[in-house]
């Protein structure tokens, strides 16, 4: 089982699903709510997911799969594919071109490969463990911004507020009270990739799922960035706190999140 063959599979799956997403974009399709009126799923999510899973099962029928809509398709395998058929479904449903296919691959609990593909913007992010990260085939790196006061940040808000000791809006308030520009794009996978390629210097969010972050997690790390929980310890793709930065501003972002830095 070669990495090159798995790379071909993950790329084929992402590009095939991306073509379907692009063909429906700003078109007519059914939309329904899941657990919450604005937590949407469309028929395109299901179509994209089926294409991805069919391609993976064709090449690796014994591998496990976790996917947003169908859930867990678990097998006794060292390999696990983690799929978001459309990350940013609300954007997609409203004709906003900030949405993507996200596919990650784990081996024995470690992320080894990830793809995030936004066909509307023609941006194909890819990373392989130990081999760096690319955008449309060209190497990418996180920013070299060291001055936290001039950082550009991005975040997101969950549809269901997490049971945390502090409301996420309070953390957001502290960030903007630093005088920092903070964006909210609506796709965690794209947020992570835009940290990886240096457009943003840092990203934080509560209550993300494994399919939201699996691919982006590896892409950030392979681009030289740092990802942790909100206590600064290493995170996995299955935890509910995500802080990703260029590394230089990581401690200061942790300080704001944890109330250690409260004033500009």
Features:
7 helices, D-Maltodextrin-Binding Protein, domain 2, 15 strands, 264 residues, alpha+beta, 2 domains, five-stranded mixed β-sheet, Fructose-1,6-Bisphosphatase, Chain A, domain 1
List the helices and strands and how they pair.
Layout: H1 3-24, E1 31-34, E2 36-42, H2 43-59, E3 64-67, E4 71-73, E5 79-87, H3 89-93, E6 100-107, E7 110-118, E8 123-128, E9 133-135, E10 138-139, E11 153-155, H4 168-177, E12 182-183, H5 188-196, E13 202-206, H6 210-222, E14 226-228, E15 241-245, H7 250-257
Parallel strand pairs: 3-5, 11-12, 11-13
Antiparallel strand pairs: 1-2, 3-4, 5-6, 6-7, 7-8, 8-9, 9-10, 13-15, 14-15
Helix pairs in contact: 1-2, 5-6
Task: Describe this entry's structure for a reader.
This protein has 264 residues and is α+β, with helices and mostly antiparallel strands. It folds into two domains: 3-139, 2-Layer Sandwich (Fructose-1,6-Bisphosphatase, Chain A, domain 1), CATH 3.30.540.10; 148-257, D-Maltodextrin-Binding Protein, domain 2. It has seven helices and 15 strands. It has helices spanning 3-24, 43-59, 89-93, 168-177, 188-196, 210-222, 250-257, and strands spanning 31-34, 36-42, 64-67, 71-73, 79-87, 100-107, 110-118, 123-128, 133-135, 138-139, 153-155, 182-183, 202-206, 226-228, 241-245. An eight-stranded mixed beta sheet has the order 4-3-5-6-7-8-9-10, sandwiched between helices. A hairpin with a 3-residue loop joins strand 3 and strand 4. Helix 1 packs antiparallel against helix 2. The longest helix is centred in the N-terminal third of the chain and has 22 residues, at 3-24. The protein starts with a helix and ends in a 7-residue tail after the last helix. 44% of the residues are buried.
């Amino acid at each position: 089982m070669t990495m090159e063959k798995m790379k071909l599979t993950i790329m084929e799956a992402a590009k095939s699903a991306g073509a379907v997403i692009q063909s429906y974009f700003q078109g007519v399709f059914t939309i329904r709510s899941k657990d919450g009126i604005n937590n949407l799923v469309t028929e395109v999510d299901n179509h994209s997911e089926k294409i991805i899973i069919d391609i993976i099962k064709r090449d690796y029928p014994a591998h496990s799969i976790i996917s947003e809509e169908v859930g867990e398709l678990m097998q006794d395998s060292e390999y696990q594919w983690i799929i978001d058929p459309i990350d940013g479904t609300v954007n997609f449903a409203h004709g906003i071109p900030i949405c993507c296919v996200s596919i990650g691959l784990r081996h024995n609990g470690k992320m080894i490969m990830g793809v995030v593909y936004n066909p509307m913007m023609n941006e194909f992010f890819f990373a392989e463990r130990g081999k760096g990260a690319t955008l449309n085939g060209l190497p990418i790196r996180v920013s070299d911004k060291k001055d936290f006061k001039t950082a550009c940040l991005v975040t997101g808000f969950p549809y269901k507020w997490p049971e945390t000791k502090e409301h996420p809006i309070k953390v957001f308030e502290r960030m903007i009270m630093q005088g920092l520009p903070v964006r909210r794009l609506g796709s965690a996978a794209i947020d992570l990739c835009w940290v990886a390629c240096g457009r943003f210097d840092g990203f934080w969010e509560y209550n993300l799922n494994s399919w939201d972050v699996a691919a982006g997690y590896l892409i950030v790390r392979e681009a030289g960035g740092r990802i942790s929980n909100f206590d600064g310890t290493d995170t996995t793709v299955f935890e509910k706190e995500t802080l990703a930065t260029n590394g230089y501003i990581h401690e200061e972002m942790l300080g704001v999140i944890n109330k250690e830095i409260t004033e500009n």
